[in-house]
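Dear colleague,

As promised, here are the two records you asked about, laid out in our usual form so they can be pasted straight into your sheet.

NAME FIELD: protein one
SEQUENCE, THEN STRUCTURE:
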Amino acid sequence: MNLPDIFEQSMRQLLGSRYENFREALLGEPAVSIRLNKTKSDSSPNYESVPWASDAYYLNERPAFTFDPLFHAGSYYVQEASSMFVEQAVRQHLGEAHVALDLCAAPGGKSTLLRSLLPDDCVLVSNEVMRTRAQVLTENIIKWGHPRSIVTSNYPADFTLLGPTFDLILVDAPCSGEGMFRKDEVAVSEWSPENVAICWQRQRDILTDIWPTLRPGGLLIYSTCTFNTHEDEENVRWMETTLDAELLPIATNDSWGITPSMLSDVAHAYRFLPGRTRGEGFFLAALRKRSDAQDSTQRTEPNAKRSKKNRDKRPATSLPAECKEWLSSNYPYSFRTTETEIVATPKDMEAILEKLAENLYILKSGITIATRKGRDLLPTHELAMSNALRTEAFARYELTYSEALNYLHREAITLPPDTPRGFVIVTYHDIPLGFVKNLGNRANNLYPNEWRIRSGHFPDKQVNVI
């Protein structure tokens, strides 16, 4: 990898004598890390723990995650270790939280992390403006399985008219990507000082648009995966002065190797630098909206192409009685039924969902538990992935490793003759992978075609990460 000359000059000026160690690390191999979904797995892998995150581990090497069935089941998420530092900001500074927003959420690592950290009754809104990336985000949110999750696809300005709505906002801002250089050569080729200037100005626009939606006393976490001070400390300083935000300290351990702020007038900022911390480049600051703050930001009209009402206008149909039996009794649900699908939503989400639907494009809310195909009612893959699924609702069949890969390739599955007819959940290590419909002589594979493993070969040995 050839680093841009101007980048090297700026980093040498920023880091001084530490630059050579940084450069050597930046040209090396990145660490590989995962974070467990404790609602699906009680595993305690024999790996080194990520010290600033719960249930997170460094792997000894990068396995072929595609061929681990538990990866597809949502039992863990492959997340860069440095970015898990978000946990410390949340644990140390977030009090009571009812609604949270991950504004730039794709592909979903920080959203799934937040979902694990937030109170169970807190609603998490995960947003991604780019529709293709929003689909990936939706898939990962579905696999994580929490029913109080909403996925939207909107510009930051579309949120502005909501007014103070969120107790927590995470802005993992689009940036010049310097921290990803050793993982992504495209980031190296696209880097330029001009792009850095575009990024820091766009980041301020994003923060200006979203700040009015943070409640007084609420917490905003600002992060990037870049190194320059323009996108990092200088933006934090701008938030302190322009938005009258209170910059918050985060307690750390010296053994973590976190680098403090590079600017003396920005007291609390946290940098992860290759060569000092085991992870990729990352920057984070936590800011509080003062309880007596006056909203000095200028509100803009939402983008007309994105802002729209999301109420389903299709005629409602009756709710089949068995659908209620598919869900656990942990939450009281409301149900929306149409000619094509049935969606269950925890009742305490209805007020925020209605508010969001007035201004935002919503891709997913609650749990789509069934679709209609002619006269047939088909339980969805989303239901199989959900933590709200009632364990006894369907017969289950435990797959071997090779059977699980066949299922994930969307190939035919043969069940034992004594398996009950109808819809059956297939599991791996007792964790649901999805549905089949058992017809007796054969079983129809209902795994989503767009999610199937497309690789035509099988691994030489089993891939079992956890």
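NAME FIELD: protein two
SEQUENCE, THEN STRUCTURE:
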Amino acid sequence: MLDKLSTHLDEMIRPILDVVTPSVSLMAILRGEAIVHQAWGWVDPETQKIPVTTETLFDLASVTKLFTVTAFLQQVSAGRVTLNTPLVDIIPEFGLLNPRPMDGGQDPHSKEVLPIPDAVKGKWVDPAQVNFFHLLTHTSGLPAWRDVFNAAGPAPVPPTQFDPIARAERWARGLSAIYSYAFVAQPGEKVIYSDIGLMLLGEAVTRLTRQPLDVAIREYVTMPLGLSSPTFNPLQNSVAQANIAPTENDPKWRKRRCWGEVHDENACGVGGVAGHAGLFAEVSDVATFGQAWLSHDPRLNIDPNFMAEAVCEQAETDGIRKGLGWMIKATDGSSAGEFMDISTYGHTGFTGTSLFIDPTKGLAVALLTNSVYPGREVPGTFELRHDVHNLIGKVAG
């Protein structure tokens, strides 16, 4: 059966390597045993001198959020903060501009400021109403995206060079901008997936642990699980470029292909470390992290009942279901496919990454790609995720 699965995956993935993504790394753990651990493609698709391996690091993009969320939920479990704690109790600066206006937000692709909907014109928000439940469920009313990177300073130099603007300064400038952004909805009103909210959650982790976010995630999440590969700014942390899958060419801002630096502009602009994006890792470590959540691993230091609560639906708008930081499988059109249960939880990343966990099957699937390599508008990532999860879901029973 497993040989057939490997063959079917090979037949599915190889034809799309030159079309959808140049690199794929996949691991599936079923009831504690790895049933798939394979890689396809090339780190350098033009020259094809560096094959992708299962040890190749990928830019996790928004899958980073799960590591940030885990570090935060540990603080809740330890009694240092609650879900209902106002954000201003931990980050007082967030409430200095009060009341805060409302607007239409900003398009993350075109970077254009969107028109203000009639429903919010002239309305205001008290930022002290935002609590950590709102951040975790993406119901804070904060915008989905804003160009924090422009506020943080000029484009960083290539990651192998010395940046004259210290990371702490870039982050301070970015935070200052975040504290002034208009809201797009009232807190608790509806689900609006927000990178801005997770950037603030990362800052809360820093203040609660009194550690920089990258250090906190390493000491509280990855090291206890024995994960060696997850790292922010990999080139600055002794990872060879040949062992990192490159992402998109950025001719406008960085004026180079992203290879060993985070693809997300906001994470890059604030120094490569943020709560919403920036982490790189190999596929086995992402799958092992998923297995830790599936098994309520005590090394995560989160109460098992609280872990179960975190991966259940806490908020929903138009079929978008949110747990506490986790995406819960959509009722229709999920990239987790048709054969993973409705209780499946996980997250996707814009670069082409994903982690999905089906508790009814005892299944954790980490699928890492760099499908933004040919450009962020190239189709096929959803279909790849969907088909891979369907194939594995069938085998899992």
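A couple of things worth noting about protein two: The longest strand covers residues 33-41. The chain is about 30% helix and 15% strand.

Best,
R.
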